[in-house]
Amino acid sequence: MLADRIPEVQQALADAGLDGWIFCVFQGNDPISLDLLGLGGHALVTRRCYYLVPRSGAPRKLAHRLEPAMLDHLPGTTERYLTWREHADALAALVGDDTRLAAQYSPSAAIPTVSRLDLGTAEVLRGAGAELLSSADLVQRFAATWSDEQLAGHRRSCVLLHDVVGDAFRRVGDALRGGAGIDEHAVQQWILERFDAAGLITESPPIVGVNAHAADPHYQPTAERTSPIRRGDFLLIDLWAKDAAPGGVYADITWCGVCDAAPAERHAEIFRIVAAARDAALETVTSRYPAQPVHGFEVDDAARGVIREAGYGDYFIHRTGHSIHVSDHGPGANMDNLETHDTRTLMPGTGFSIEPGIYLPGDFGVRSEINVALTPEGAEVTGGEPQKELIRVLA
Hints:
- By secondary structure, this protein is an alpha+beta fold.
- The chain folds into 2 domains: 2-143, Creatinase/prolidase N-terminal domain (Creatine Amidinohydrolase, Chain A, domain 1), CATH 3.40.350; 148-392, Creatine Amidinohydrolase (Alpha-Beta Complex), CATH 3.90.230.
- The protein has helices at 6-16, 31-36, 84-95, 119-127, 136-143, 148-177, 184-198, 265-286, 296-309, and strands at residues 20-25, 49-54, 60-64, 77-81, 100-103, 131-134, 200-201, 207-210, 234-243, 251-258, 323-324, 351-354, 357-360, 364-367, 370-374, 379-381, 391-392.
- The strands form 4 sheets. A 6-stranded mixed sheet has the order 4-3-2-1-5-6.
- Strand 15 (370-374) and strand 16 form a beta hairpin.
- The longest helix has 30 residues, at 148-177.
- The radius of gyration is 23 Å and the shape is elongated.
- It starts with 5 loop residues before the first helix and ends with a strand.
- The model has no long low-confidence stretch (mean pLDDT 96).
């Protein structure tokens, strides 16, 4: 929580030439602020409240008189307001002379995960003389980094996911060899049972898709919408989970295979391209980090260049990777130069996925996903070796 890191935040503000960092909270408008201020999961943030950490001196709080204790757990001085007229004046007083402020704002909404400040509040702040700058780098440093305990938990979770995905493919093979019916939803539910037995939790069920369903990057089977898994099918499994203990950090991997003794040449060709793209992205990170800066968009460019060169650029329809934290999609830098142009520098103590894919509508899709943790020493692929070839379910 931010309360324990105020001196560190103030040093970061000084280094960035900022007067302060302002947090504007109303209901669930800004998950970053809610988490950093220790308000995540709070049911009664029903009135606007504000927290400003200045470059020096005590933080300043502004709360509504109906919820006067909302920010009492945080250090600093407190002012309160009741009416809308008092609100505008009190917010201007909160800003005071600290006018060059970081906020959860992204120019032109270029980084949507940081673009949380509403225009109306921005107008009030600017009317009070504030110059608003993006908190994107601060967010990555203070909301996206992992503790040593979180890194250890992520490693354990990632190893467990590799065990589960391997067992899932073997389960499919056993069913096919034994003549028993099995479908996408049944495999998905079996994976969830394994998560529960291992003490893992997840935000949403895993993706289990055969053939054309594998070409839908966010397909999820349900009891009502599921396809049987048969001999000769192409099978993609994408699963993500974390330790159930508070503060657990996600692991998120994708493996692919064929329900046969060997893949068709078309399946093998597409997998080779995707795996080469994954490895090119990873090489961009490992060859430069930590000695040289690496930006999110550059990692995406490396993967996308391989797929484009192979003639499948139009079929790689998502970013190369995403930040990973206590939510599967975290607030740090994404490996992205498609959906956004993420210029953030990859930071020690953070983690992310690398997961290029080629999706051929109506046919099949391939994705190969690994997780990378950035330690002070280097970039670590967690959980196990990247997939080298398609799993042969009936080999």
